[in-house]
Amino acid sequence: MGRFYTNYDWGQNGKKPELKKESLVRIYRYFLPYWKFLIWVVTCILVAAGLALLQPLFIKWIVDTAIPDGDLWLLNLLAVSMVTAAILQGLVGVMQTYLNTRIGQGVMFDIRNQMYGHLHRMSIRFFTSTKTGDIMSRVNNDVNGLQQVVTDTIAQSLNNVLISVTTLITMFLLDWRLALVSILLLPLFILPTRKVGKLNYDAKKQTQVRMSELSSLMQETLSVSGALLVKSFVRQDDEVRKFAGINRELMRLQIRQSMIGRWFFMFVGIISTAGPAIIYWYGGHLVIDENITLGTVIAFTAFLNRLYGPVAALANIQVNILGSVALFERLFEYLDLPLEIEEKPNARKLQDVQGRIDFQHVTFRYQAERDVVRDLSFTIEPGQVVALVGPSGSGKTTVSNLIPRLYDPTEGRVLLDGQDLRDLELKSIGEQIGMVTQETFLFHASIRDNLRYGKPDASDEEVIAAAKAAHIHELIQSLPEGYDTVVGERGHKLSGGEKQRMAIARVLLKGPKILILDEATSALDSHSEHGIQMALDELMSQRSRTSLVIAHRLSTILAADQILVLEEGRLVEAGYHEELLAQNGLYASLYRQQFEGDGDLALDGKRRAVRIGVKQGEFE
Ligand SMILES: Nc1ncnc2c1ncn2[C@@H]1O[C@H](COP(=O)(O)OP(=O)(O)OP(=O)(O)O)[C@@H](O)[C@H]1O
């Protein structure tokens, strides 16, 4: 029996979507590579429909011919034929399931790959403004729904049309009066089915909403950071209560759904008995009047039963098709998201990189009307170490993100070796730049694999050399499984300082020409502080490398060839430590405030956290 409802979303605000021609053409293109399978599906459906049609006719021949004539040979033949037809029908059904699944999974495979690839080309802005749960849900749930589109919408509908048409034709050929009565009976089961279909659809939709609420909640509160937050604010009870609330609603909806299903089967049960009863009653009269044979009446009741499911399913076909198209459209929405950072068709490949960086009148906004970087111009010569300092929120991270082209400047240009980043191949920019950010991300994999992310073909010796240079080798060796130790999700099994040294080792392995480094500000014990310091020295000491450091350590600042001081996105001072101190401006003020041990500084009348982060005592 076909399905009478669909669980596809009808898009936003529950409005019925319209069938758009371009969507249909696009969907059609996804199925095109599977045309051979589609032909086989149609063949299977045709064969199955034909075989199914034969069964009632076999009964009719048994009742009308074989038994009255006492023809045992024919009786045997017909009985064997019935069984053979049933076996063949079953085999064709198995074949059809394989083909349906193959097509459905094929389309899913293609779309999933396409979507994942597209998401990786999206800009960082997309990831900072989209909930991870939403992305996951599109890639998982929506794509998974596609199997149902193939099985329910395409194959079932085709099946149902064929069965309904062939059965009706055969019925009319057998006896037009009984056929007419049968057609008059159809609304009897179409109407309740439609009603139940609608109820079920609504219940399913509500269930889906609750399900996604529940998984969002779990995703947020059961992630390491989320769980940490819940614990530190002792909000477990609230979270459990919130969860229970949604969970209870879910339970209610599931029960409702089961009951709707039960009512539905009750109706179907009654009608499947009532329909044949009417046929027997009317057919009985015709047999008594000797207008038709008994076999015809029996065959008719079998045909009528075959007609219920397909016709009722076809009554809901519109919902199915609209739902399927809506599902595809939701996926297209993601596939059509414009790429903010796109490579030009004639983009140049960077060759023999020197590592010179120029900012030319760069202005940048995340959102309209708020400049985060304003008219910024500076040059970093190849091999220089430049320290970027400034109060929190002054735009240091933003500036550093413009160099690997994570964002494009709103105005002005960023040049690498004299070439506008926008004219260069994205891959070749990425290959030249290494980033060590404040928050280190590690995959849930072994330490070795995490380090190798910087250079997939690195030998074990190279990995160890990098770990030694980053002063993390000893620690790794002291772990029971050494380099094969699996670090937890996001590397939560390592301390902050250890993670940062891992990140440094990873970048050392990559060996980029340009290094962007955000020194950690979190308080570390003197031992790991020392380790990191040595690792950083190693990283920056190679003079063939250009380094831009968001500096928080005095030693880094003192070692820098140039210090750039940012304030509200503007470059307010630039020069050496002594030079800047002598100017007695923002840098000197930040330096003095820090020296006095006050982590905060009054700027523009507001109190702001100062993030040059020089530690007390380092000045002595
Ligand atoms: N993705 C974003 N969308 C909108 N605004 C942002 C975004 N990222 C940063 N900002 C804003 O841009 C300004 C500069 O942020 P940025 O992170 O560059 O400062 P920073 O100097 O690195 O600060 P900190 O030292 O605290 O890390 C801040 O006011 C911040 O609120």
TrEMBL record:
Listed GO MF terms: ABC-type oligopeptide transporter activity; ATP binding; ATP hydrolysis activity
Domain ABC transmembrane type-1 intervals:
39-323
Q: Which UniProt keywords apply?
A: ATP-binding, Membrane, Nucleotide-binding, Transmembrane, Transmembrane helix, Transport
> Any idea where this protein resides?
Cell membrane
Q: Which SMART domains match?
A: AAA
**Which cellular component appears as one GO term in the record?**
plasma membrane
Q: Which SUPFAM superfamilies match?
A: ABC transporter transmembrane region (SSF90123), P-loop containing nucleoside triphosphate hydrolases (SSF52540)
**Chain ranges of the ABC transporter domain:** 357-593
Quote the CDD domains the UniProt record gives: ABC_6TM_exporter_like
| Membrane association type | Multi-pass membrane protein
The answer on whether this UniProt entry bears the keyword Membrane reads yes
List the transmembrane segments. 37-59, 71-92, 168-191, 260-282
Signal peptide range: none
Any keyword Transmembrane? yes
Q: What is this protein called?
A: ABC transporter
Annotated organism of origin: Tumebacillus algifaecis
